[in-house]
Amino acid sequence: MWSPQQERLENKVREGFLIIDKPPNLLSHEVSAIIGRLFSTKAGHGGTLDPKVSGVLVVALGRSARLLRFLTEMPKTYVGIVEFKEKKNKEGVERLFSSLTGVIEQLPPKEAAVARRRRKRMVYSLELLELSEDGKFALFKARVEKGTYIRVLCEDMGGSMVDLRRVETAGIEEKDAVIMQKVVDAKLLHDRGDSKLLDSILLGAGEIFWKSSLAKVVVNNKAAKNMARGAPLYAPGIMEVFGNIRNGLPIAVYSVGGSFIGVWRAVKDYKKESRGTVAKAERVHLNLLS
Questions:
Q1: Is the dihedral of CA 77, 82, 84, 85 positive or negative?
Q2: Backbone φ, ψ for residue 89 (5° rounding)
Q3: pLDDT attached to residue 4
Q4: Higher pLDDT residue, 107 or 20?
């Protein structure tokens, strides 16, 4: 099976990605600031987590931070605990969760850094994992659209959020996340000449997008050279597709040699018999002409 080319460590140190397991009681921007200082470069994070929320936080170094927006616009999965105001049974909770699945309306909380107006969001799934014996606490799993407030969702359940953890974002899962101390240890070992650990946890742009839920496209050499100049993705240049290309969604584009070219956005649903323009450039990351 085709796979992306692994980037050199020297490149990843300048503009790589880290999948961090953010601890509670630490701001997301504090995580990226710590990592930025550690690597002596600017760093950004994708998909801000509330201070008390733990879990998957993607951090990018250098110019790769400009790619984060394509990951943050994808769905996210959370596991949390809600405390109900009134005792509930399993059947009642499952009916409640079913009623909150699909398109819902939310009013952002007062502390949110967005305008307080009602907006529609998609809850793709809301699953009851466990209900306490007294019927007051429920462990749940929610897969939601970006910008969905789980705290508000818990209020819509008739309760309040007790604990929350993000276990997946844009297809990037918690099993691949590393704690902050491991990053610090890896960097210290690297500075002393042992780069094995750092090389294993730092990912290149091509590697992080390969792990993601974005559709991926491999293009021929002619298309790759043109797309490095920002040309559209045309159907004849496509050699292989991984996932489904849907109108309006981002696509990760690779050369046949495995180099990550950048992110394009689909202008239509793609099928094998499709012709003409499939996607337009959003972010060219690699200049194959240099």
A1: negative
A2: -105, 170
A3: 79
A4: 20
Domain boundaries along the sequence of the chain: 9-72+172-208, 76-169, 214-284
> What's the number of CA atoms in the CB half-sphere (13 Å) around residue 257?
10
What is the average pLDDT score of the chain? 94
How many C-beta neighbours within 10 Å does residue 108 have?
A: 17
**The CATH homologous superfamily of the domain defined by 214-284:** PUA domain (2.30.130.10)
Residue 116 clears pLDDT 50, i.e. is over it:
yes
* Class of the domain covering 9-72+172-208: alpha beta
Given a contact cutoff of 8 angstroms between Cβ atoms, the answer to whether 267 and 279 are in contact is: yes
Q: 130-157: per-residue pLDDT in tens?
A: 999 999 999 999 999 999 999 999 999 9
Triad 250, 180, 171: Cα angle to 5°: 25
Contacts 24+ apart (CB under 8 A), 60-63: 60/15, 60/16, 60/17, 60/18, 61/12, 61/13, 61/14, 61/15, 61/16, 61/17, 61/18, 61/35, 61/36, 62/14, 62/15, 63/15
Angle at 216 between CA 211 and CA 221, to 5 degrees: 125
Question: Can you give the three-state secondary structure of 124-169, one letter per residue?
Answer: EEEEEEEECCCCCEEEEEEEECCCCCHHHHHHHCCEEEEEEEEEEE
Catalytic residue check, 50: yes
* Residue 289 predicted with pLDDT over 80: no
Please provide the CATH number assigned to the domain covering 76-169: 3.30.70.3190
> Phi/psi at 116 (nearest 5 deg)?
-85, 85
| Marked catalytic residue, from 21, 50, 194, 199 | 50
Q: How far is CA 133 from the centre of its chain?
A: 35
pTM for this structure? 0.93
